[in-house]
What does this fold into?
Amino acid sequence: MTKAQGTADKNLSNVVEALEVEAVNSHQAQQLQQDKNDRSNQDDINHDHPTDLEHQKN
It folds into this structure.
C-alpha cells in the first residue's frame, strides 16, 4: 500500500487536536492529563526494545 504524498497522518492529527483542547475545570484537566499519559504509555508498549544478544551461541 502506498500513502498519498502531502497528506497528514490521521492519528497524528487527532492527537494534535486533543492536545489543543483547553480544560474547563480541574476534573477535565485531570482527564486530559490521563489521556496524554495513556497515549504515552501505549507508545512505550508499542516500541520494540532491543534484547541482549550477548548470550546467543554462534
Summary: The chain has two helices and no strands.
